[in-house]
Design a protein that fits this description.
Oligomer: single chain
CATH superfamily of the largest domain: Periplasmic binding protein-like II
Largest sheet: 7 strands, mixed
Number of strands: 12
Radius of gyration: 20 Å
Strand content: 15-25%
Number of domains: 2
Order of helices and strands: EHEHEHEHEEEHHEHEHHEEHHEH
Number of helices: 12
Shape: globular
CATH class of the largest domain: Alpha Beta
Helix content: 40-55%
Structural class: alpha/beta
Amino acid sequence: MACVITGCEPPKEQNSRQEKTFGQQEILIGLIPEQNVFRQRERHQALKKYLFDKAGITVNFTSLSRYGNIIEHFKTDKLDGAFFGSFTYALARHQIGVEPLVRPVNLDGTSTYHGYLFVRKDSGIRNVEQLKGKRFAFVERATTAGYLFPIAYFREKDIANLQAFLGESFFAGSHDASILAVLNGEAEAGAAKNTIYDLMAIENPRIEKELLILASSGVVPQNCLAVRKKLDPSLKNLLKKTLLEMNEHDDGEDSLQRFGARGFIETRDSDYEYLYKLTAEAGINLKTYHYENQ
């Protein structure tokens, strides 16, 4: 079930102004479950408050239980947009049609992430061939770092039938859960995005001490805010402009710090060239791909 983060309602005068300007007074944005829902909620509240205070846009965020169901929610819950991971963006672009707007710039100055394939050091695994018969923790079938990258990586190593190669595999549901599954010995190996892995490594010294990164992917765009194509152009442009200019204002800098970013940059479909290369290597058709976990 989706969990909707709500906030204070705008004053009536503001409602009236927005209705005249945009034809609607609030938008609903979906969030994929890359982290614990409470951590995501706290992070996006800062963004919600800034967008209302600065531009009069009321944003409600809905935290989704799964990566793949963001496409279903676009249809059934009539989402106006979502912060998509790179793979979910590509799926939504090809299956329902969405338009990319912006993505955050990480605190280290990058606006991209990459995938890690990691193992427990005490497993003795040092190459992909030694994963034969081992237990592997994926994230979800609709994630780049947590599924698409390892699938493409195994195929590159001439391992197409993972079910026969691995002893067992499972979907952890989020990147932090995949990392913890390997850390706590529930799997010998796993996959996740580097931004979550590196953040957790700072907070938990066991990760660097007990885990070993076996392989890394190329880079893909950080989670992008993309919206439905028929969203009111005035509202869409204001949303984009307000986010792109956040770091130019003191209150925007404060909100960005709480959000965990330096700012936002424009995102285009051409930024996903490496992602599209990975899907081809993994043998995935984006228009027909079945992304539900099995």
